[in-house]
Design brief:
alpha/beta; 290 residues; 9 helices; two-stranded antiparallel sheet
Length: 290
């Protein structure tokens, strides 16, 4: 497996507005402690895109994890959006469709996609507002999400569910607008081959880092520097040295950057048994799930 010298983790947000307190970005370089990029700054999604473009231009040997889903379920029904004639055939086509329908939405928001009469049929939008093609119960899950539930590696929520604090559908759609812009300049595993040098994007769950650091399921949020340093030590990382309280978005990014560094050389993480070329092209995979 190739080596990286920098490891970045992006805690993401799909909320409306020009700037998002839910966005945090951290980088672990070499063997040093992970550090926030622009600590205290309230990021916009456009600024994150600009940062990614800078990394692409610099050709830094950086593994970059983003905490949103690159795709919706496809394998279970042979389509992202059954009964919609414009349902895309693969990941890049999905991102392009999302961008086409949201092009007029500011700040990389996605309201126009979710308001589209065909798209909205597939989502649970709110209590009592459920599309007629939304799968009852947990909603449709990607193969990686089914696998991680079955093996108890992580607990996932369907991207078609837009209700509740754990929903990731809106964040994933907003993230797809960024992926559509950087694809071709920064490869995405496992859709693209791992390049011999330069940056590489992977999808992550920050909860995997918390579990690896010994935190129990359902109690993975860290909000003070002392607890963060204890979790980092469990991953073999130097302390971040944050004093007092901190946001769980910042701690998620810091801890996950250190976790990426700790597992990136594990060949098993790059070749999970259920992953196929077809899944790589249509659903992707969450890095770290084996």
């Amino acid at each position: 497996m190739r080596r990286f010298t920098h490891f970045a983790a992006l805690d993401w947000s799909g909320a409306r507005g020009p700037r998002q307190r839910g966005i945090a970005l951290a980088v672990a370089s070499g063997a040093a402690a992970p550090a926030l990029v622009r600590p205290g700054h309230v990021w916009s999604r456009a600024e994150i895109l600009a940062w990614l473009e800078e990394i692409a231009a610099s050709r830094a040997d950086m593994l970059i994890g983003f905490d949103f889903s690159a795709a919706f379920a496809f394998a279970d029904r042979g389509a992202y959006f059954p009964e919609w004639t414009e349902s895309p055939a693969d990941l890049p086509a999905l991102w392009a469709l999302v961008e086409t329908l949201t092009a007029r939405d500011p700040h990389y928001e996605v309201a126009s996609f979710l308001a589209h009469p065909e798209a909205r049929r597939h989502f649970r939008h709110g209590q009592g507002d459920v599309g007629d093609l939304y799968t009852p119960g947990a909603g449709r899950l990607r193969v990686v999400e089914q696998h991680q539930r079955a093996t108890r590696q992580a607990a996932s929520v369907s991207n078609f569910n837009l209700v509740g604090a754990a929903q990731v559908g809106k964040a994933s759609l907003a993230g797809m607008r960024l992926l559509q812009r950087v694809h071709g300049r920064i490869p995405l595993w496992p859709l693209d081959p791992v390049p011999p040098s330069g940056p590489l994007l992977v999808e992550i769950y920050t909860s995997l880092a918390a579990r690896a650091a010994g935190m129990p399921p359902g109690r993975s949020k860290i909000r003070d520097g002392k607890a963060l340093d204890a979790a980092l030590a469990a991953l073999g990382s130097p302390p971040a040295g944050v004093t007092g309280s901190m946001s769980d978005h910042a701690s998620d990014a810091l801890l996950t950057a250190a976790w990426l560094r700790a597992i990136a050389s594990d060949t098993e993480r790059w070749s999970p048994a259920p992953l196929s070329d077809t899944l790589a092209a249509t659903e992707g995979w969450t890095f770290g799930i084996i």
